[in-house]
Design brief:
The chain has 9 helices and 16 strands. By secondary structure, the chain is an alpha+beta fold. The protein has one domain: Metallo-beta-lactamase, Chain A, CATH 3.60.15.10. Strand 10 and strand 11 form a beta hairpin.
Length: 324
């Protein structure tokens, strides 16, 4: 796949920042867009906010003038309060912009307990809203807002009209390696029809490159082909979960990971863990697997187990809603 996954400039106006999401490199990115003004596309969780600020300071870009939130999932917006407090210490402000449909979700972040029930999420207020077709003027570059619900009901994309670079957040799913593509059906607001309609809308957009929240800057033919891949990946993974549901194995995460690896021919990329807690967790799990004479897990496989629990939650919430 023609993708840049390393931190640094990806075009004249945009810098990829690897935020170390989930305590691992290569799993989540935010993007700094600079012209006369600066705009940060998404801002990670509160755990990654200090690293983001550190990188921005090295780039002489902290605080950014604007943070644009693609959607209200915690891993894209919970860094906002932290960055705002840090900016406040410098007697500066950050303008936060999101879809008008994001406003109630940002002001009540409790819906994110679909991911971690015991985690506290900080509500986000004082947000300026945009809608389909609005343009965010960075004095020399404009970002055009595009509604792309499905993954989350408030999701927006943003087109850098100057560079024809499209920021899609999580709207089309995840791609953390050349042969490691994951679907978009996360809880709690997944909507398949909206997802498919959003993919079709993106086909009509005049873009040449594409930036993924998870993970990287996609260019060349793949920047267009990835839309087809988003559909096929969604269908394949949903089919594996549906089959497991029928056989009573939907809660067997290890089984699901093995089935997905086989069915999707997933090739796990090298992922470097930077969190001591995750390193210890993987070490203990592999110690147990050695005792039971099972193959050792890589860091990518270890993380996939957690992501799979969220995909199962998204699947369950959707199918339960459909049930008569």
């Amino acid at each position: 796949m023609t993708t840049i996954r390393t931190e640094g400039k990806v075009n004249d106006n945009t810098t990829l920042i690897d935020i170390g999401l989930f305590g691992a490199k290569g799993t989540g990115a935010v993007y700094l867009v600079q012209a006369g003004k600066s705009c940060l596309i998404d801002c990670g969780t509160k755990a990654e906010a200090p690293r983001i600020a550190k990188v921005l300071k090295k780039l002489d870009a902290f605080p950014p003038d604007i943070v644009l939130i693609t959607h209200a999932h915690y891993d894209h917006c919970q860094g906002v309060p932290v960055l705002r407090r840090m900016a406040g210490e410098m007697q500066k402000d950050i303008q936060v912009i999101a879809s008008e449909r994001s406003l109630p979700l940002l002001e009540d972040q409790s819906f994110n307990r679909a991911f971690y029930e015991d985690r506290e999420y900080e509500n986000i207020h004082d947000v300026n809203t945009v809608r389909e077709g609005d343009k965010i003027d960075l004095d020399g570059l404009k970002l055009r807002v595009i509604d792309v619900p499905g993954h989350c009901k408030d999701h927006i994309a943003a087109l850098d009209e100057k560079n024809k670079n499209l920021f899609v957040g999580d709207a089309i799913g995840y791609n953390v390696g050349d042969n490691a593509t994951l679907p978009a059906f996360m809880p709690p607001f997944w909507h398949e029809d909206a997802f498919r309609a959003s993919i079709e809308k993106l086909r009509t957009v005049d873009y040449e490159t594409l930036c993924l929240g998870h993970f990287g800057y996609v260019y060349g033919d793949e920047a267009k082909d990835i839309l087809d891949e988003a559909i096929s990946t969604n269908d394949l993974w949903w089919g594996v979960l549906a089959s497991a549901d029928e056989s009573g194995k939907l809660d067997d995460i290890s089984y699901l990971v093995e089935e997905i690896v086989r069915a999707a021919q997933v090739e796990f990329p090298h992922i470097e863990l930077v969190s001591p807690k995750l390193k210890y967790g993987l070490k203990m799990m592999n110690a147990w697997r050695r005792l039971t004479r099972r193959a050792q897990l890589t860091a990518a496989e270890f993380l996939l187990k957690e992501v799979m629990t969220w995909l199962v939650t998204g699947y369950k919430m959707t199918t339960q809603t459909r049930a008569p």
